[in-house]
Amino acid sequence: MPEVPVKCPKCGHMAVSAVGERTGGVSLGKAAIGGILLGPVGLLGGALGKKKKLYQCKHCGYTIEK
C-alpha cells in the first residue's frame, strides 16, 4: 500500500489527503503470472489494470497519483 505523500510536490504544503482511487494502466506482473498459469487467457488478466490512489493538496488543489 503506497504511503500518503508527506507534502505537496508543487507548493510544499503539508495538508495532503487521500481523495479516491482509480483503475488504469496494464499490470505487467499480473499479465506474466496469468500467462504462466493460464496461457493466453491469463495474459488478458494483465489488461485489467492496477489500482492507483489519488491524493490532493488541500492548499493548492494539486492531484498526486501513486
Helical/strand content category: alpha+beta
How large is the count of helical segments? 2
The domain tally reads: 1
Strand percentage lies at 25-35%
Mean pLDDT: 77
- The amount of helix comes to 25-40%
Low-confidence stretches: none
Number of strands: 3
Strand arrangement within the widest β-sheet reads 1-2-3
Order of helices and strands: EHHEE
Tell me the span between the first and last alpha carbons.
Answer: 10 Å
**What's the Cα radius of gyration?**
16 Å
Q: Per the principal axes of the C-alpha atoms, what is the gross shape?
A: rod-shaped
Major sheet characteristics = 3 strands, antiparallel
Concise structural overview:
The chain has 66 residues and is an alpha+beta fold. It has helices at residues 28-38, 40-45, and strands at residues 16-24, 50-57, 63-65. Strands 1-2-3 form a three-stranded antiparallel β-sheet, with no helix packed on it.
Describe the structure.
The chain is of the alpha+beta class. Helices cover 26% and strands 30% of the residues. It has one domain (16-65). It has two helices and three strands, in the order βααββ. The protein has a three-stranded antiparallel β-sheet, with no helix packed on it. The N and C termini lie close together (10 Å).
